[in-house]
Specification:
CATH topology of the largest domain: Rossmann fold
CATH class of the largest domain: Alpha Beta
Shape: elongated
Order of helices and strands: HEHEHEHEHHEEHEHEHEHEHEHEEHH
Number of helices: 14
Structural class: alpha/beta
Length: 351
């Protein structure tokens, strides 16, 4: 069994390398991506879904603006399809609590469960009863260990990871006039979501911008270390033109380091919306752009994929929603497109 897992890991690794050559996002097992726009319950199919008297449970990993937007997208689609949402939970990043949420939800006999599995091994056992009961399972980004499509789940839905990294590279290059030096702060963990985003940024800079050089690379696993990492980077490369940061949390630490050094010229790009990062961006600070996902669309696609599965339709195993580049001049539209809400008042009043 261990040997087989190693073989699967090697195949997935080389599939990941191939994806960068082909400039596309792939799933955790090397699955090809299907755009979320093609996963639609047609008007002709709505009546069949409504006749099923289906219900759904949304069992999330945490509570945030992102999760709220995914919930809104799913809930609006379920309303269109006549599917009642019987439970919405948040596990607070606690795998044991998520398992309890699943057990509680199953008492309500949902036809559909949408969820982000917190731990592949623990989640595999936690969702087993739901799987055996024939519940249509659609997962956000993660997949329980050993689960196979289409027998065990309807689909994985996530971001267009390669495009997120590529758009970050394009935005930083634009801010730097397509020349200069860059620092690359990547997620130092084996997680296909952040790995693909980070590596897509690096590949795009190296392949598309010959006058930009990545002169500093540093992995990060603890966002609290971001400021120290940035200070060390700036000490060795005081004239660095731009820094890519794997997501917005550690980007806040990088921004603090630049401010502490009196650096007003080094540009930052990062991924995922954040009030402090957006506020600096709209004020014309170091932040050049934020690349975000369409969280509302993620929820809609999750709901649609599960409904199609219940109808016996073929559902692609790996579905991706578009990425969007948010800059100072489109921050309001970007927030709406991503999260389906207005930006924080601090951001709009500063814009």
């Amino acid at each position: 069994m261990r040997f087989m897992k190693q073989i699967i890991a090697i195949v997935a690794y080389f599939g990941l390398l191939t994806s960068f050559a082909a400039a596309e996002t792939i799933g955790p097992g090397g699955e090809s991506a299907t755009p979320s726009s093609s996963v639609v319950v047609s008007d002709d199919q709505v009546e069949a879904v409504q006749a099923g008297n289906y219900t759904a449970a949304l069992l999330w990993h945490d509570q945030s603006d992102f999760v709220n937007a995914v919930t809104a997208g799913a809930s609006d689609e379920f309303t269109r399809l006549g599917i009642e949402v019987v439970a919405v939970t948040s596990a607070g990043f606690d795998a044991a609590r998520q398992r309890s949420d699943i057990e509680t939800a199953l008492a309500k006999n949902p036809s559909i469960i949408l969820s982000l599995p917190l731990d592949p091994v623990t989640s595999a056992a936690a969702f087993e009863e739901a799987k055996e009961a024939g519940v249509a399972l659609t997962f956000l980004s993660n997949l329980p260990s050993g689960y196979m499509h289409p027998d065990d789940y309807a689909a994985i839905v996530t971001d267009d990871l390669f495009q997120m990294g590529k758009q970050a590279a394009d935005a930083l290059a634009e801010a730097m006039g397509s020349s200069g030096t860059v620092g690359w702060i990547f997620h130092d963990a084996n997680y296909y979501v952040t790995n693909q985003r980070d590596n897509a940024f690096k590949a795009t800079i190296e392949n598309d911008y010959p006058d930009i050089s990545i002169v500093a690379e540093q992995g990060i696993s603890d966002p609290a270390r971001a400021e120290d990492i940035a200070n060390a980077m700036l000490l060795k490369n005081p004239d660095i033109g731009g820094i890519y940061v794997t997501w917005a949390g550690p980007a806040e630490g990088v921004l603090a380091a630049l401010r502490a050094n009196g650096n007003e010229t080094t540009k930052i790009v990062t991924l995922d919306l954040s009030e402090p990062i957006a506020l600096d961006m709209v004020r014309g600070g170091n932040v050049a752009a934020i690349v975000a996902d369409e969280a509302y669309e993620l929820g809609r696609a999750m709901a649609a994929s599960a409904a199609l599965d219940l109808l016996g339709e073929d559902v692609p195993p790996f579905i991706v929603a578009p990425a969007i580049t948010v800059m100072a001049d489109n921050v309001v539209e970007g927030w709406h497109q991503s999260l389906n809400i207005d930006p924080p008042s601090s951001v709009t009043s500063a814009n």
